[in-house]
Amino acid sequence: MTRAAVASALVPALLLGAGAPAVAATNTLTVTTLDRNGKKVTVTTTVVNLATSERRSVTSNKAKKLPKGTYAVLASIRTGETSTLGARTVKVSGASKTTVDARKGKRVSLGLSPAIDTAGREIRTMARICTVGKSSYEHVGAADLGGGLYVVPNSSKRLAFAAMRSWVDHSGASPHYVVKYRTTGVPSSPTRTFAQSSLGTVDVESRRGPSAGTLSNLAVQPADRACGDEMYGLLFDTEQPYRTKLHLSAGKWYVRAHARAEAKDGSAPVVGSYLVPRTVSAGKSQTVRFFRSAWGPSTRLPQVNYGWLSYSLNDMFADPGFPRDSVEGGDKATATLKFGGKTVKTKKDRGWESEMTSLEYKVKKSGWYTLTNDASRYYPEITFPAGMLSPKTSVTYRFKAKPNTSVTAPVYALTMLPTGLDLHNRAKAGGSTNVQLKLSRPKAGPDAKLGKNPKVKTVTAKASFDGGKTWRSVSVKKIDGVWTAQVGNPTSGAVSLRARVTDTIGGYTDVTIVRAYAIG
After folding, report:
1. What is the predicted pLDDT for the residue at 170?
2. Which residue in 166, 286, 455, 461 could disulfide with 485, CB within 3.0 to 4.6 Å?
3. 486 exposed, middle or buried (CB, 10 Å; 0-12, 13-18, 19+)?
Protein backbone atom coordinates (compact mmCIF):
# COMPACT_ATOMS: atom_id res chain seq x y z
CA MET A 1 0.00 0.00 0.00
CA THR A 2 1.35 3.44 -0.91
CA ARG A 3 1.82 6.19 1.65
CA ALA A 4 -1.08 8.11 0.03
CA ALA A 5 -3.32 5.06 0.32
CA VAL A 6 -2.46 4.64 3.98
CA ALA A 7 -3.22 8.28 4.61
CA SER A 8 -6.56 8.09 2.82
CA ALA A 9 -7.49 4.94 4.74
CA LEU A 10 -6.87 6.70 8.03
CA VAL A 11 -9.06 9.68 7.19
CA PRO A 12 -12.45 7.97 7.78
CA ALA A 13 -11.22 6.53 11.07
CA LEU A 14 -9.95 9.90 12.23
CA LEU A 15 -13.16 11.58 11.21
CA LEU A 16 -15.21 8.89 12.95
CA GLY A 17 -13.26 9.36 16.17
CA ALA A 18 -13.66 13.12 16.01
CA GLY A 19 -17.44 12.81 15.68
CA ALA A 20 -17.99 10.30 18.56
CA PRO A 21 -20.57 11.57 21.11
CA ALA A 22 -19.29 12.75 24.47
CA VAL A 23 -20.52 11.15 27.71
CA ALA A 24 -23.91 12.74 28.57
CA ALA A 25 -23.71 15.40 31.25
CA THR A 26 -25.27 14.46 34.60
CA ASN A 27 -28.14 16.64 35.83
CA THR A 28 -28.42 16.95 39.59
CA LEU A 29 -30.42 18.88 42.14
CA THR A 30 -29.24 19.77 45.61
CA VAL A 31 -31.91 21.07 48.00
CA THR A 32 -30.54 22.88 51.03
CA THR A 33 -32.93 23.17 53.99
CA LEU A 34 -32.47 25.59 56.89
CA ASP A 35 -34.55 25.73 60.07
CA ARG A 36 -35.84 28.93 61.67
CA ASN A 37 -32.50 29.43 63.40
CA GLY A 38 -30.62 29.24 60.11
CA LYS A 39 -29.19 25.83 60.94
CA LYS A 40 -28.83 23.34 58.12
CA VAL A 41 -31.12 20.37 58.78
CA THR A 42 -31.77 17.21 56.83
CA VAL A 43 -35.36 16.45 55.81
CA THR A 44 -37.06 14.36 53.14
CA THR A 45 -38.46 16.66 50.47
CA THR A 46 -41.01 15.95 47.77
CA VAL A 47 -39.74 16.79 44.28
CA VAL A 48 -42.33 16.89 41.49
CA ASN A 49 -41.67 17.11 37.75
CA LEU A 50 -44.13 19.80 36.73
CA ALA A 51 -44.41 18.50 33.16
CA THR A 52 -45.13 14.86 34.00
CA SER A 53 -46.34 15.07 37.66
CA GLU A 54 -43.78 12.35 38.48
CA ARG A 55 -42.97 12.45 42.18
CA ARG A 56 -39.75 11.62 44.01
CA SER A 57 -38.68 11.69 47.63
CA VAL A 58 -35.35 13.48 47.87
CA THR A 59 -33.14 13.86 50.96
CA SER A 60 -32.03 17.44 51.39
CA ASN A 61 -28.38 18.61 51.40
CA LYS A 62 -27.36 15.85 48.97
CA ALA A 63 -27.09 15.96 45.19
CA LYS A 64 -29.79 13.91 43.49
CA LYS A 65 -29.63 12.80 39.84
CA LEU A 66 -32.73 13.90 37.95
CA PRO A 67 -33.82 14.14 34.32
CA LYS A 68 -33.58 17.64 32.91
CA GLY A 69 -36.76 19.60 33.52
CA THR A 70 -38.67 22.01 35.76
CA TYR A 71 -39.47 20.79 39.25
CA ALA A 72 -41.33 21.88 42.35
CA VAL A 73 -39.59 21.19 45.65
CA LEU A 74 -41.87 20.81 48.70
CA ALA A 75 -40.44 20.72 52.22
CA SER A 76 -41.64 20.66 55.83
CA ILE A 77 -39.07 21.84 58.36
CA ARG A 78 -39.44 21.45 62.12
CA THR A 79 -37.79 23.80 64.60
CA GLY A 80 -38.74 22.56 68.06
CA GLU A 81 -42.55 22.70 68.19
CA THR A 82 -42.70 25.00 65.14
CA SER A 83 -43.37 23.76 61.61
CA THR A 84 -42.52 25.66 58.43
CA LEU A 85 -43.69 24.71 54.96
CA GLY A 86 -41.72 25.89 51.96
CA ALA A 87 -41.73 25.32 48.22
CA ARG A 88 -39.44 26.26 45.36
CA THR A 89 -39.66 25.85 41.60
CA VAL A 90 -36.34 25.14 39.92
CA LYS A 91 -35.02 24.21 36.48
CA VAL A 92 -32.72 21.21 36.64
CA SER A 93 -29.93 21.34 34.06
CA GLY A 94 -26.43 20.44 35.09
CA ALA A 95 -25.63 20.92 38.78
CA SER A 96 -28.71 22.79 40.01
CA LYS A 97 -29.28 24.03 43.54
CA THR A 98 -32.08 25.61 45.54
CA THR A 99 -32.69 26.49 49.19
CA VAL A 100 -35.75 26.32 51.42
CA ASP A 101 -35.08 28.72 54.28
CA ALA A 102 -37.54 28.45 57.18
CA ARG A 103 -36.43 31.86 58.47
CA LYS A 104 -38.42 33.40 55.61
CA GLY A 105 -41.65 31.76 56.80
CA LYS A 106 -44.73 33.83 57.65
CA ARG A 107 -47.14 32.70 60.34
CA VAL A 108 -50.46 31.16 59.25
CA SER A 109 -53.37 32.76 61.07
CA LEU A 110 -57.10 32.39 60.44
CA GLY A 111 -59.62 34.23 62.59
CA LEU A 112 -63.29 35.02 63.10
CA SER A 113 -65.05 38.36 63.35
CA PRO A 114 -66.51 38.95 65.80
CA ALA A 115 -64.13 36.75 67.76
CA ILE A 116 -65.59 33.85 69.75
CA ASP A 117 -64.99 32.86 73.36
CA THR A 118 -62.23 30.24 73.19
CA ALA A 119 -62.56 29.03 76.79
CA GLY A 120 -62.85 25.24 76.77
CA ARG A 121 -62.12 25.01 73.05
CA GLU A 122 -59.22 23.41 71.25
CA ILE A 123 -57.91 25.49 68.36
CA ARG A 124 -56.28 23.55 65.53
CA THR A 125 -54.54 24.94 62.47
CA MET A 126 -53.19 23.00 59.52
CA ALA A 127 -51.83 24.01 56.13
CA ARG A 128 -50.75 22.57 52.79
CA ILE A 129 -48.59 23.68 49.88
CA CYS A 130 -49.48 21.88 46.65
CA THR A 131 -48.27 21.66 43.10
CA VAL A 132 -50.68 22.77 40.40
CA GLY A 133 -50.85 20.31 37.51
CA LYS A 134 -53.13 19.31 34.67
CA SER A 135 -54.44 16.10 36.21
CA SER A 136 -53.04 15.67 39.70
CA TYR A 137 -51.14 17.43 42.43
CA GLU A 138 -48.75 16.62 45.23
CA HIS A 139 -48.60 18.35 48.57
CA VAL A 140 -46.69 18.84 51.77
CA GLY A 141 -48.54 19.64 54.96
CA ALA A 142 -48.18 20.32 58.66
CA ALA A 143 -50.24 21.17 61.73
CA ASP A 144 -49.67 23.72 64.47
CA LEU A 145 -48.28 21.75 67.39
CA GLY A 146 -48.36 24.72 69.72
CA GLY A 147 -45.28 26.59 68.55
CA GLY A 148 -46.82 28.07 65.44
CA LEU A 149 -47.23 27.15 61.79
CA TYR A 150 -45.38 29.08 59.07
CA VAL A 151 -45.18 29.08 55.28
CA VAL A 152 -42.51 30.56 53.01
CA PRO A 153 -44.16 32.89 50.43
CA ASN A 154 -43.82 32.06 46.74
CA SER A 155 -45.73 33.76 43.92
CA SER A 156 -45.38 30.89 41.42
CA LYS A 157 -48.68 29.91 39.81
CA ARG A 158 -47.43 26.33 39.72
CA LEU A 159 -48.02 26.23 43.48
CA ALA A 160 -51.13 26.54 45.65
CA PHE A 161 -51.73 27.09 49.35
CA ALA A 162 -54.50 25.95 51.66
CA ALA A 163 -55.11 26.37 55.37
CA MET A 164 -57.85 25.22 57.73
CA ARG A 165 -58.57 26.21 61.33
CA SER A 166 -61.10 24.71 63.71
CA TRP A 167 -62.42 25.85 67.08
CA VAL A 168 -63.59 22.64 68.72
CA ASP A 169 -65.72 21.98 71.77
CA HIS A 170 -65.10 18.32 72.57
CA SER A 171 -68.32 17.99 74.52
CA GLY A 172 -70.32 18.62 71.36
CA ALA A 173 -72.62 20.98 73.21
CA SER A 174 -71.40 24.29 71.75
CA PRO A 175 -71.10 25.07 68.03
CA HIS A 176 -67.90 24.10 66.26
CA TYR A 177 -66.32 26.53 63.82
CA VAL A 178 -64.20 25.43 60.86
CA VAL A 179 -62.88 27.68 58.09
CA LYS A 180 -60.67 27.04 55.07
CA TYR A 181 -58.59 29.41 52.96
CA ARG A 182 -57.04 28.77 49.54
CA THR A 183 -54.84 30.74 47.15
CA THR A 184 -52.84 30.21 43.99
CA GLY A 185 -49.24 30.69 44.98
CA VAL A 186 -48.14 30.92 48.60
CA PRO A 187 -49.23 34.34 49.92
CA SER A 188 -46.84 36.80 51.54
CA SER A 189 -49.42 37.26 54.29
CA PRO A 190 -51.06 33.86 54.98
CA THR A 191 -53.77 35.31 57.21
CA ARG A 192 -57.47 35.78 56.80
CA THR A 193 -60.36 36.82 59.03
CA PHE A 194 -63.80 35.36 58.30
CA ALA A 195 -66.92 37.30 59.16
CA GLN A 196 -69.27 35.04 61.07
CA SER A 197 -72.03 36.24 58.75
CA SER A 198 -70.15 34.60 55.85
CA LEU A 199 -70.41 31.14 57.42
CA GLY A 200 -73.11 28.55 56.83
CA THR A 201 -74.53 26.09 59.37
CA VAL A 202 -74.85 22.31 59.32
CA ASP A 203 -76.98 20.87 62.11
CA VAL A 204 -75.72 17.38 62.90
CA GLU A 205 -77.67 14.66 64.67
CA SER A 206 -76.07 11.33 65.54
CA ARG A 207 -78.22 8.59 67.05
CA ARG A 208 -77.59 5.25 68.73
CA GLY A 209 -79.26 1.87 68.33
CA PRO A 210 -78.58 0.12 65.02
CA SER A 211 -74.79 0.50 64.91
CA ALA A 212 -72.48 -2.26 66.16
CA GLY A 213 -70.17 0.50 67.37
CA THR A 214 -70.13 1.88 70.88
CA LEU A 215 -68.21 5.04 69.96
CA SER A 216 -68.62 7.47 67.09
CA ASN A 217 -66.71 10.52 65.95
CA LEU A 218 -67.53 13.58 63.90
CA ALA A 219 -65.18 15.22 61.42
CA VAL A 220 -65.16 17.61 58.47
CA GLN A 221 -62.99 17.65 55.37
CA PRO A 222 -62.79 19.99 52.36
CA ALA A 223 -64.37 18.44 49.28
CA ASP A 224 -63.29 20.79 46.50
CA ARG A 225 -60.87 18.42 44.71
CA ALA A 226 -58.19 21.05 45.08
CA CYS A 227 -55.27 21.88 47.36
CA GLY A 228 -56.16 21.03 50.93
CA ASP A 229 -58.82 18.44 50.23
CA GLU A 230 -56.89 15.93 52.35
CA MET A 231 -57.04 18.09 55.46
CA TYR A 232 -59.09 16.18 58.02
CA GLY A 233 -60.67 18.03 60.92
CA LEU A 234 -61.64 15.64 63.74
CA LEU A 235 -64.09 17.40 66.03
CA PHE A 236 -64.86 14.93 68.80
CA ASP A 237 -65.47 11.31 69.83
CA THR A 238 -68.34 10.26 72.04
CA GLU A 239 -70.24 7.24 73.31
CA GLN A 240 -73.45 9.25 73.54
CA PRO A 241 -75.91 10.34 70.85
CA TYR A 242 -75.85 14.06 70.22
CA ARG A 243 -77.07 17.10 68.38
CA THR A 244 -74.56 19.81 67.54
CA LYS A 245 -73.97 22.67 65.11
CA LEU A 246 -71.13 23.20 62.66
CA HIS A 247 -70.43 26.70 61.41
CA LEU A 248 -68.40 26.30 58.21
CA SER A 249 -66.95 28.72 55.69
CA ALA A 250 -68.71 28.75 52.32
CA GLY A 251 -67.76 25.99 49.89
CA LYS A 252 -67.86 22.23 49.49
CA TRP A 253 -67.33 20.02 52.53
CA TYR A 254 -67.61 16.42 53.60
CA VAL A 255 -69.29 15.82 56.95
CA ARG A 256 -67.93 12.51 58.22
CA ALA A 257 -68.89 10.07 60.96
CA HIS A 258 -67.20 6.83 61.93
CA ALA A 259 -68.43 4.11 64.29
CA ARG A 260 -65.91 2.23 66.41
CA ALA A 261 -66.54 -1.01 68.27
CA GLU A 262 -64.96 -2.64 71.27
CA ALA A 263 -63.05 -5.64 69.93
CA LYS A 264 -62.32 -8.72 71.99
CA ASP A 265 -58.57 -8.09 71.68
CA GLY A 266 -58.92 -4.63 73.26
CA SER A 267 -58.68 -2.63 70.03
CA ALA A 268 -61.33 -0.26 68.70
CA PRO A 269 -61.76 -0.96 64.96
CA VAL A 270 -63.86 1.20 62.65
CA VAL A 271 -66.93 -0.86 61.75
CA GLY A 272 -68.82 1.70 59.70
CA SER A 273 -68.64 5.19 58.29
CA TYR A 274 -70.54 7.93 56.48
CA LEU A 275 -69.14 10.49 54.04
CA VAL A 276 -71.78 13.14 53.32
CA PRO A 277 -71.10 15.96 50.83
CA ARG A 278 -72.54 19.37 51.59
CA THR A 279 -72.27 22.68 49.74
CA VAL A 280 -72.26 25.39 52.40
CA SER A 281 -73.54 28.92 51.68
CA ALA A 282 -73.33 32.05 53.81
CA GLY A 283 -76.23 32.34 56.24
CA LYS A 284 -77.88 29.10 55.10
CA SER A 285 -78.64 26.06 57.29
CA GLN A 286 -78.97 22.38 56.49
CA THR A 287 -79.15 19.11 58.41
CA VAL A 288 -77.23 15.83 58.45
CA ARG A 289 -78.53 12.86 60.46
CA PHE A 290 -76.45 9.76 61.18
CA PHE A 291 -77.40 6.28 62.45
CA ARG A 292 -81.16 6.48 62.05
CA SER A 293 -83.43 3.43 62.11
CA ALA A 294 -84.42 1.21 60.43
CA TRP A 295 -81.47 -0.48 58.74
CA GLY A 296 -82.67 -2.66 55.90
CA PRO A 297 -81.86 -3.71 52.32
CA SER A 298 -80.21 -1.04 50.20
CA THR A 299 -81.77 0.35 47.04
CA ARG A 300 -79.49 -1.76 44.81
CA LEU A 301 -81.89 -3.84 42.73
CA PRO A 302 -81.31 -7.13 40.90
CA GLN A 303 -80.21 -6.70 37.31
CA VAL A 304 -79.84 -8.69 34.11
CA ASN A 305 -76.75 -7.93 32.05
CA TYR A 306 -76.39 -9.62 28.67
CA GLY A 307 -78.64 -12.40 29.86
CA TRP A 308 -76.96 -12.91 33.27
CA LEU A 309 -79.01 -12.13 36.38
CA SER A 310 -76.90 -10.74 39.25
CA TYR A 311 -77.53 -9.49 42.76
CA SER A 312 -75.12 -8.44 45.52
CA LEU A 313 -75.65 -10.09 48.91
CA ASN A 314 -73.63 -7.48 50.84
CA ASP A 315 -75.87 -4.41 51.09
CA MET A 316 -78.54 -5.48 53.54
CA PHE A 317 -78.05 -2.98 56.38
CA ALA A 318 -78.45 0.49 54.92
CA ASP A 319 -79.43 3.57 56.92
CA PRO A 320 -82.71 4.91 55.44
CA GLY A 321 -81.06 8.31 55.10
CA PHE A 322 -78.30 6.78 52.97
CA PRO A 323 -80.12 3.89 51.33
CA ARG A 324 -77.78 3.03 48.47
CA ASP A 325 -75.11 1.19 50.47
CA SER A 326 -74.76 -0.59 53.77
CA VAL A 327 -73.45 1.63 56.53
CA GLU A 328 -71.47 -1.16 58.18
CA GLY A 329 -69.85 -4.19 56.61
CA GLY A 330 -69.98 -7.55 58.29
CA ASP A 331 -72.89 -9.88 57.72
CA LYS A 332 -73.81 -13.40 56.74
CA ALA A 333 -76.35 -13.93 53.99
CA THR A 334 -78.06 -16.63 51.94
CA ALA A 335 -79.67 -15.79 48.61
CA THR A 336 -81.92 -18.14 46.65
CA LEU A 337 -83.36 -17.76 43.16
CA LYS A 338 -86.48 -19.64 42.12
CA PHE A 339 -88.08 -20.17 38.71
CA GLY A 340 -91.34 -22.01 38.30
CA GLY A 341 -91.40 -22.82 42.01
CA LYS A 342 -88.01 -24.59 41.86
CA THR A 343 -84.73 -23.30 43.28
CA VAL A 344 -82.29 -22.76 40.40
CA LYS A 345 -79.48 -21.00 42.26
CA THR A 346 -78.27 -20.55 45.85
CA LYS A 347 -75.43 -18.32 47.02
CA LYS A 348 -74.03 -17.89 50.53
CA ASP A 349 -71.92 -15.19 52.11
CA ARG A 350 -70.33 -16.74 55.20
CA GLY A 351 -69.16 -13.37 56.50
CA TRP A 352 -66.01 -11.34 55.86
CA GLU A 353 -65.39 -12.85 52.46
CA SER A 354 -62.33 -11.50 50.65
CA GLU A 355 -64.52 -10.04 47.89
CA MET A 356 -68.07 -8.88 47.40
CA THR A 357 -70.49 -11.81 47.12
CA SER A 358 -73.01 -11.90 44.28
CA LEU A 359 -75.56 -14.38 43.03
CA GLU A 360 -75.07 -14.91 39.29
CA TYR A 361 -77.40 -16.91 37.05
CA LYS A 362 -77.74 -17.20 33.28
CA VAL A 363 -81.39 -16.65 32.38
CA LYS A 364 -82.39 -19.54 30.12
CA LYS A 365 -86.16 -19.12 30.03
CA SER A 366 -88.56 -16.19 30.12
CA GLY A 367 -90.91 -15.98 33.06
CA TRP A 368 -91.31 -15.10 36.71
CA TYR A 369 -88.27 -15.26 38.99
CA THR A 370 -88.30 -14.94 42.78
CA LEU A 371 -85.09 -13.81 44.50
CA THR A 372 -84.77 -13.87 48.31
CA ASN A 373 -81.84 -12.74 50.42
CA ASP A 374 -81.73 -13.35 54.20
CA ALA A 375 -78.95 -11.60 56.15
CA SER A 376 -77.77 -11.29 59.75
CA ARG A 377 -75.12 -9.11 61.31
CA TYR A 378 -71.78 -10.84 61.82
CA TYR A 379 -68.70 -9.43 63.56
CA PRO A 380 -66.80 -12.31 65.18
CA GLU A 381 -64.16 -9.94 66.59
CA ILE A 382 -66.54 -7.81 68.64
CA THR A 383 -69.38 -8.14 71.11
CA PHE A 384 -72.56 -6.48 69.87
CA PRO A 385 -74.04 -3.73 72.06
CA ALA A 386 -76.89 -4.91 74.25
CA GLY A 387 -80.23 -4.39 72.53
CA MET A 388 -78.68 -3.60 69.12
CA LEU A 389 -81.32 -2.82 66.52
CA SER A 390 -81.61 -4.34 63.04
CA PRO A 391 -79.73 -7.60 63.71
CA LYS A 392 -81.51 -9.35 60.81
CA THR A 393 -83.13 -8.33 57.54
CA SER A 394 -84.54 -10.05 54.49
CA VAL A 395 -85.84 -9.06 51.07
CA THR A 396 -87.78 -10.89 48.35
CA TYR A 397 -88.21 -9.65 44.77
CA ARG A 398 -90.63 -11.24 42.28
CA PHE A 399 -90.14 -10.06 38.72
CA LYS A 400 -90.17 -11.14 35.09
CA ALA A 401 -86.90 -11.77 33.25
CA LYS A 402 -85.95 -13.15 29.86
CA PRO A 403 -82.76 -14.28 28.13
CA ASN A 404 -80.32 -12.03 26.27
CA THR A 405 -81.46 -8.76 27.89
CA SER A 406 -79.80 -6.01 29.92
CA VAL A 407 -82.33 -4.49 32.31
CA THR A 408 -82.86 -3.44 35.91
CA ALA A 409 -85.39 -5.76 37.50
CA PRO A 410 -88.88 -4.20 37.12
CA VAL A 411 -89.50 -3.96 40.87
CA TYR A 412 -89.17 -1.28 43.53
CA ALA A 413 -86.61 -0.84 46.27
CA LEU A 414 -88.48 -0.36 49.55
CA THR A 415 -86.91 1.69 52.37
CA MET A 416 -88.49 2.07 55.83
CA LEU A 417 -88.02 5.22 57.90
CA PRO A 418 -89.72 5.40 61.32
CA THR A 419 -90.39 9.03 62.25
CA GLY A 420 -90.59 10.76 65.62
CA LEU A 421 -87.93 8.62 67.33
CA ASP A 422 -85.54 9.95 69.97
CA LEU A 423 -81.74 9.95 69.82
CA HIS A 424 -81.69 6.29 70.86
CA ASN A 425 -84.12 5.40 68.04
CA ARG A 426 -86.90 4.79 70.58
CA ALA A 427 -90.59 5.47 70.18
CA LYS A 428 -92.91 6.39 73.01
CA ALA A 429 -94.26 3.35 74.86
CA GLY A 430 -97.90 2.74 74.02
CA GLY A 431 -97.94 5.52 71.46
CA SER A 432 -98.03 5.35 67.67
CA THR A 433 -95.28 5.68 65.08
CA ASN A 434 -95.54 6.64 61.43
CA VAL A 435 -93.12 4.62 59.29
CA GLN A 436 -92.44 6.07 55.86
CA LEU A 437 -92.32 3.39 53.15
CA LYS A 438 -90.21 4.98 50.42
CA LEU A 439 -90.28 3.44 46.93
CA SER A 440 -87.44 3.98 44.45
CA ARG A 441 -85.96 2.46 41.32
CA PRO A 442 -82.34 3.54 40.83
CA LYS A 443 -80.65 2.18 37.74
CA ALA A 444 -78.72 -0.96 38.64
CA GLY A 445 -75.85 -0.55 36.18
CA PRO A 446 -74.72 1.38 33.09
CA ASP A 447 -76.02 -1.32 30.73
CA ALA A 448 -79.08 -2.34 32.73
CA LYS A 449 -81.91 -0.33 31.17
CA LEU A 450 -84.32 1.03 33.76
CA GLY A 451 -87.52 0.93 31.72
CA LYS A 452 -90.86 2.21 32.92
CA ASN A 453 -91.71 2.07 36.60
CA PRO A 454 -94.23 -0.67 37.41
CA LYS A 455 -97.67 0.62 38.33
CA VAL A 456 -98.24 0.20 42.07
CA LYS A 457 -101.28 -1.85 42.99
CA THR A 458 -100.98 -2.12 46.79
CA VAL A 459 -98.61 -1.22 49.63
CA THR A 460 -99.13 -3.19 52.83
CA ALA A 461 -97.31 -3.47 56.15
CA LYS A 462 -97.13 -5.59 59.28
CA ALA A 463 -95.57 -5.20 62.72
CA SER A 464 -94.21 -7.73 65.20
CA PHE A 465 -93.57 -7.19 68.91
CA ASP A 466 -91.89 -10.56 69.58
CA GLY A 467 -88.87 -10.42 67.27
CA GLY A 468 -90.71 -11.64 64.17
CA LYS A 469 -92.43 -14.71 65.59
CA THR A 470 -95.92 -13.36 65.03
CA TRP A 471 -97.15 -10.52 62.82
CA ARG A 472 -100.18 -8.22 62.74
CA SER A 473 -101.31 -6.01 59.87
CA VAL A 474 -101.14 -2.23 60.27
CA SER A 475 -102.80 0.57 58.34
CA VAL A 476 -100.95 2.12 55.37
CA LYS A 477 -101.90 5.55 54.06
CA LYS A 478 -100.35 8.19 51.85
CA ILE A 479 -99.22 11.15 53.95
CA ASP A 480 -97.81 14.14 52.04
CA GLY A 481 -97.36 11.88 49.03
CA VAL A 482 -95.42 9.16 50.90
CA TRP A 483 -96.78 5.71 51.71
CA THR A 484 -96.84 5.53 55.51
CA ALA A 485 -97.46 2.63 57.87
CA GLN A 486 -99.18 3.63 61.10
CA VAL A 487 -97.94 1.39 63.92
CA GLY A 488 -99.48 1.21 67.38
CA ASN A 489 -96.54 0.59 69.72
CA PRO A 490 -96.28 -1.88 72.60
CA THR A 491 -95.35 -0.77 76.11
CA SER A 492 -91.81 -2.16 75.97
CA GLY A 493 -89.31 -4.04 73.81
CA ALA A 494 -88.86 -3.34 70.11
CA VAL A 495 -90.89 -3.29 66.90
CA SER A 496 -90.06 -5.41 63.85
CA LEU A 497 -91.43 -4.30 60.51
CA ARG A 498 -92.50 -5.99 57.28
CA ALA A 499 -93.78 -4.23 54.18
CA ARG A 500 -94.70 -5.22 50.64
CA VAL A 501 -95.27 -3.24 47.44
CA THR A 502 -97.13 -5.16 44.71
CA ASP A 503 -97.48 -3.99 41.12
CA THR A 504 -100.43 -4.46 38.79
CA ILE A 505 -98.89 -7.37 36.84
CA GLY A 506 -97.96 -9.46 39.89
CA GLY A 507 -94.43 -8.43 40.73
CA TYR A 508 -93.55 -7.37 44.26
CA THR A 509 -90.88 -6.44 46.78
CA ASP A 510 -91.18 -7.69 50.37
CA VAL A 511 -88.85 -6.39 53.09
CA THR A 512 -88.50 -7.51 56.72
CA ILE A 513 -86.43 -5.73 59.40
CA VAL A 514 -86.17 -7.39 62.81
CA ARG A 515 -86.03 -4.93 65.74
CA ALA A 516 -86.46 -1.95 63.43
CA TYR A 517 -86.84 0.48 66.33
CA ALA A 518 -86.97 0.35 70.11
CA ILE A 519 -89.59 1.34 72.65
CA GLY A 520 -88.48 3.57 75.50
Report:
1. 75
2. 461
3. middle
